[in-house]
């Protein structure tokens, strides 16, 4: 069956691809944050496992191609590996259910090792599934057309590529929103089961839709894998050359010519062309090492930034959508505007030059990321080391207060409700302090633990000066852009404090509650209930990644008066500052990736395009392995320095590639194959003449 000249089966294949790409990119978008916040891994381990997974996804296509071409055929390979894929997605969704092992219902898993084991199993199955079907689906779609439907086949590949980008774009917008929801049976947590569950459901839909169209498909039988033949040819040439290494055997023009005893001239010539291109691929993995950090390091960078876009709150993992949006815009702009302009300027912008420019732009994108990171680092407060203590003073009374830290370390004078910033002291030097307010003076010895922050609340009341030490047990910025809030009761009697839906319990006079977590970018209603008091008020809007102490000063006539003390400043560098680095990297992708595939196809023999496709995917896998090696070996403490290191490495590789490219001679595979056809015809003709002559001689 067909519609407008198109086989109906291709529409099923396009729906299948959309669902599969939604499933993959949706799961991948939230993956690094799942590692960091659910499995409680640090940034380095999260990045390592993320890139190991991506590398595995790009290594398995070779396995999928071999299975499809040599054993099961494309249809059965897609079905069987899609089942593996769906099971993997389902296992990931189950692994993220907090209540699975939360026996004591405290909001955190009791058996984190089980969750890690399930996650790793799920990711291995997904890598086998997505990688295994990657080389099969587009080729299977191409198989549905007749030989005379070249125009329709070309349009199919365009729509197929569009479905990949549509699935990627939608999933990267939707799954972070699902992740940001709160769900759970016993305690409310970030909803990773939903964020992984929806991609799992889409993968199941993809599988059902694909199987439903089974009777419509043209299913080509396995023809044997050309990749295996290429490897066998190379292997035999090396082995044969090694056997004939003594000087008595004459040298051959090319080392692959040593395979001529077993393999025909055509296969050897085609393998030479392929190896020539694969040699140029050697520097390319460095580009992917930078490109794929969008989903790891750049997403982690976004967690330390302000995501408030006017009325919309952008999640850190949603910043990845900038790439597919820009791709959809940039590909036609570059093709219809940029390249024609370069041509008009009489510049010979060859494919290899485009790839070189792409590598340079990617290096530039990481310089931009480093500059943003430097600005972010300026907003991160300095926390005390193990030998230091930090002290903040709040004057909770109505009289002025002067505090002296002895022996002659620091003096501070504060008016009513005034507070200082954190002051840093060497713990061993802090011995005592004296406080003067009005005509009263008091002093006390100090013995504070190192590596901690403290707030000193001071109040001069009728009975004398009261000094209350409060431990500020927060020594890092809150994660995921959340805020930490606590209250100090500056009223004469005990009160119960509630903010939004969070109860802080009973807070005694001149005491502080514990910190509680609130999501960023919002304001809440504060309720105060005392023995004879009740009041409420709306808090100020809090930013992202801050910590505040709210002092309750007055609760009269239902009106609430408070003072805000900023313990940790909010994230002030806006996520929009990531857009330039995404823009530069997307420009790099357009001139690098699209050109690279086009160049590979133009330089590959007709039956060897799959081999170069496998080689291209292999560069992505190796690129992700490079991230593991460089990030593990560099031991850099500053994130901006790691960005600069990657930028410098790619710049060096870019120069090496530019030099290699100058020695490359472009070939026309069709011309070479036509020449081989001509030689084969001539050989056949000569053989026929020889056989006829031999037959004539035998008759005489």
Automatic annotation (TrEMBL):
One GO MF annotation is: oligopeptide transmembrane transporter activity
Pfam families attached to this UniProt entry: PTR2
Membrane disposition = Multi-pass membrane protein
The entry's keywords:
Cell membrane, Glycoprotein, Membrane, Peptide transport, Protein transport, Symport, Transmembrane, Transmembrane helix, Transport
Q: Which residue stretches, if any, does this entry annotate as coiled coil?
A: none
The portions of this protein that span the membrane are 49-68, 75-94, 114-133, 154-174, 194-213, 273-291, 325-342, 354-374, 610-631, 643-667
Where mainly found? membrane
User: Does the keyword section mention Cell membrane?
Assistant: yes
Gene Ontology, cellular component aspect? apical plasma membrane
Localization (cell): Apical cell membrane; Membrane
Q: Which Gene3D superfamilies match?
A: MFS general substrate transporter like domains
So what does this thing catalyse? L-aspartyl-glycine(out) + 2 H(+)(out) = L-aspartyl-glycine(in) + 2 H(+)(in); glycyl-L-glutamine(out) + H(+)(out) = glycyl-L-glutamine(in) + H(+)(in); glycylglycyl-L-isoleucine(out) + H(+)(out) = glycylglycyl-L-isoleucine(in) + H(+)(in); L-lysyl-glycine(out) + H(+)(out) = L-lysyl-glycine(in) + H(+)(in)
Q: Alphabetically, which GO biological process terms does the record hold? A: protein transport
Stated role: Electrogenic proton-coupled amino-acid transporter that transports oligopeptides of 2 to 4 amino acids with a preference for dipeptides. Transports neutral and monovalently charged peptides with a proton to peptide stoichiometry of 1:1 or 2:1. Primarily responsible for the absorption of dietary di- and tripeptides from the small intestinal lumen. Mediates transepithelial transport of muramyl and N-formylated bacterial dipeptides contributing to recognition of pathogenic bacteria by the mucosal immune system.
Describe the family membership recorded for this protein in Swiss-Prot or TrEMBL.
Belongs to the major facilitator superfamily. Proton-dependent oligopeptide transporter (POT/PTR) (TC 2.A.17) family.
Record-linked NCBIfam families: 2A1704
Q: How does it assemble?
A: Interacts (via extracellular domain region) with trypsin.
- The protein's name: Solute carrier family 15 member 1
């Amino acid at each position: 069956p067909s519609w407008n000249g198109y086989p109906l089966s291709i529409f099923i294949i396009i729906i299948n691809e959309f669902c599969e790409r939604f499933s993959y990119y949706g799961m991948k978008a939230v993956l690094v944050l799942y590692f960091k916040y659910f499995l409680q891994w640090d940034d380095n381990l999260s990045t390592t496992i993320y890139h190991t997974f991506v590398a595995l996804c790009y290594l398995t296509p070779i396995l999928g191609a071999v299975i499809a071409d040599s054993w099961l055929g494309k249809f059965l390979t897609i079905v069987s590996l899609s089942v593996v894929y769906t099971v993997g997605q389902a296992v990931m969704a189950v692994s993220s259910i907090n209540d699975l092992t939360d026996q004591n219902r405290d909001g955190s898993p009791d058996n984190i090792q089980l969750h890690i084991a399930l996650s790793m199993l799920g990711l291995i199955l997904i890598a086998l599934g997505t990688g295994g079907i990657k080389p099969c689906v587009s080729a299977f779609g191409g198989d549905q057309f007749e030989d005379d439907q070249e125009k329709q086949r070309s349009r199919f590949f365009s729509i197929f590529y569009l479905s990949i980008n549509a699935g990627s774009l939608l999933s990267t917008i939707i799954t972070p929103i699902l992740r940001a929801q709160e769900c759970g049976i016993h305690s409310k947590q970030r909803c990773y089961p939903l964020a992984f569950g929806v991609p799992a459901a889409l993968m199941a839909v993809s599988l059902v839709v694909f199987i439903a169209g089974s009777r419509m498909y043209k299913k080509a039988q396995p023809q044997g894998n050309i990749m295996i033949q290429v490897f066998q040819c190379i292997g035999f040439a090396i082995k044969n050359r090694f056997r004939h290494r003594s000087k008595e055997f004459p040298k051959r023009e090319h080392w692959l010519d040593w395979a001529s005893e077993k393999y025909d001239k055509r296969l050897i010539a085609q393998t030479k062309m392929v190896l020539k291109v694969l040699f140029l691929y050697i520097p390319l993995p460095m580009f992917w090492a930078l490109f794929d950090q969008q989903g790891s390091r750049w997403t982690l960078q976004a967690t330390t930034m302000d995501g408030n876009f006017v009325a919309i709150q952008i999640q850190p993992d949603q910043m990845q959508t900038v790439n597919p949006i820009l791709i959809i815009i940039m590909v036609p702009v570059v093709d219809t505007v940029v390249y024609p302009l370069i041509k008009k300027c009489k510049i010979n912008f060859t494919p290899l030059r485009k790839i070189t420019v792409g590598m340079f732009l990617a290096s530039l994108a990481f310089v931009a990321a480093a500059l943003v990171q430097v600005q972010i680092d300026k907003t991160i407060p300095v926390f005390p080391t193990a030998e230091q203590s930090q002290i903040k003073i709040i004057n909770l009374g109505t009289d002025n207060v002067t505090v002296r830290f002895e022996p002659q370390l620091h003096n501070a004078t504060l008016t009513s409700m005034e507070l200082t910033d954190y002051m840093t002291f060497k713990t061993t030097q802090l011995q005592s302090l004296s406080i003067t307010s009005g005509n009263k003076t008091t002093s006390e010895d100090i013995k504070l633990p190192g590596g901690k922050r403290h707030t000193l609340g001071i109040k001069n009341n009728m009975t004398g000066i009261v000094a209350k030490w409060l431990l500020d047990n927060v020594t890092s910025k809150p994660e995921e852009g959340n805020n930490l809030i606590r209250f100090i009761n500056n009223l004469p009697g005990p009160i119960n404090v509630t903010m939004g839906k969070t109860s802080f319990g009973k807070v005694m006079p001149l005491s502080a509650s514990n910190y509680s977590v609130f999501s960023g970018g919002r304001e809440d209603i504060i309720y105060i209930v005392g023995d004879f008091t009740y009041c409420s008020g709306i808090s100020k809007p809090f930013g992202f990644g801050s910590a505040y102490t709210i002092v309750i000063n007055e609760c009269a006539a239902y009106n609430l008066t408070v003072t805000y003390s900023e313990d940790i400043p909010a994230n002030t560098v806006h996520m929009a500052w990531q857009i330039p680095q995404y823009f530069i990297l997307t420009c790099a992708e357009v001139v690098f990736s699209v050109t690279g595939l086009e160049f590979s196809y133009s330089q590959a023999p007709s039956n060897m395009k799959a081999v170069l496709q496998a080689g291209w995917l292999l560069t992505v896998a190796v690129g992700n392995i490079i991230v593991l090696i460089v990030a593990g070996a560099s031991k850099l403490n500053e994130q901006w320095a790691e960005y600069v290191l990657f930028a410098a490495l790619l710049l060096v590789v870019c120069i090496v590639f530019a030099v290699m490219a100058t020695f490359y001679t472009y070939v026309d595979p069709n011309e070479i194959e036509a020449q081989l056809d001509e030689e084969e015809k001539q050989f056949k003709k000569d053989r026929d003449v020889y056989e006829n002559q031999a037959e004539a001689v035998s008759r005489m």
